[in-house]
Amino acid sequence: MSWLVTGGAGYIGAHVVRAFQAAEIDVVVLDDLSSGFSAFVPSDVPFVQGSILDGALISETIQRYGITGVVHVAGYKYAGVSVQRPLHTYQQNVTGTAILLAAMADAGVDRIVFSSSAAVYGTPDVDLVTEDTPKSPESPYGESKLIGEWLLRDQGVAVGLRHASLRYFNVVGSGDPSVYDASPHNLFPLVFEALLAGRTPRINGDDYATPDGTCVRDYIHVADLAAAHVVAAQRLDAGDPIETVYNLGSGDGVSVGEIMSAVAEVTGIDFTPEIAPRRPGDPARIVATGELAARDLDWRMRYSLVDMVRSAWEARRAAS
């Protein structure tokens, strides 16, 4: 039994790889290093450098390493930029997923855990998002993730593919000081880079209908996220019942203002965030229930906000 992790050299994928290792499940990484780092891949894990658009390479990798399941994390993940690069986004996230699924079907690999996203919901008009909340993506990225879920669903009907899509919300923190979030668009890296450069972090809008006026989001620790992937894979391997979609949400929200306070506490850098105008399309609050995942995937919040900030900050400082 060996699982292939596409995108396993990225921030999230590298944590998934480590979680599989901790569960003593053999794992192989496929990554084109467009946003990942080879140094994030443990030295004892086979690493294949290449793209999910290369069906021949995927087939060769499956055969060489006896792959029995796939965790599909690879993809173009920049929702805002996807509006300017829709064709690239669809090529990577839709065409790439279709090529991967075709290679899996040809090799008889019949189980997959898919990295989906809260972006499939767009701006939901509910206090607590569930898996049944209407889907209304507002970017090519969100649309591509929803199409990815459809591809898995249709392959399930066509060839019996067993699958689970995990919808991520705001993934933060670090479970290994050698792996950090290097995204130029995520909140934690933006705040840390500002502080390291001697600049003042900023908040986009402080006049929302929330307790402190700043946006409320669902922040989850990357190590908890990775652990849920392992349990999903184990259920698929065992043939246990499993839902096709799970929200990995906390059931509770954290405001941007609260994050800034936690960052100041952890870093010891006293600052007052600059207040910038609202960004178009930013909803006041997006928080999801993780009840289904708690029932089936041992999903729970094992880390406090300070834990999340401290682990992320320590990993970023270690990379300097």
TrEMBL record:
<comment type="similarity">
    <text>Belongs to the NAD(P)-dependent epimerase/dehydratase family.</text>
</comment>
<protein>
    <recommendedName>
        <fullName>UDP-glucose 4-epimerase</fullName>
        <ecNumber>5.1.3.2</ecNumber>
    </recommendedName>
</protein>
<dbReference type="InterPro" id="IPR036291">
    <property type="entry name" value="NAD(P)-bd_dom_sf"/>
</dbReference>
<dbReference type="InterPro" id="IPR005886">
    <property type="entry name" value="UDP_G4E"/>
</dbReference>
<keyword id="KW-0119">Carbohydrate metabolism</keyword>
<dbReference type="GO" id="GO:0033499">
    <property type="term" value="P:galactose catabolic process via UDP-galactose, Leloir pathway"/>
</dbReference>
<feature type="domain" description="NAD-dependent epimerase/dehydratase">
    <location>
        <begin position="3"/>
        <end position="249"/>
    </location>
</feature>
<keyword id="KW-0520">NAD</keyword>
<dbReference type="InterPro" id="IPR001509">
    <property type="entry name" value="Epimerase_deHydtase"/>
</dbReference>
<dbReference type="Pfam" id="PF01370">
    <property type="entry name" value="Epimerase"/>
</dbReference>
<dbReference type="GO" id="GO:0003978">
    <property type="term" value="F:UDP-glucose 4-epimerase activity"/>
</dbReference>
<keyword id="KW-0413">Isomerase</keyword>
<comment type="pathway">
    <text>Carbohydrate metabolism; galactose metabolism.</text>
</comment>
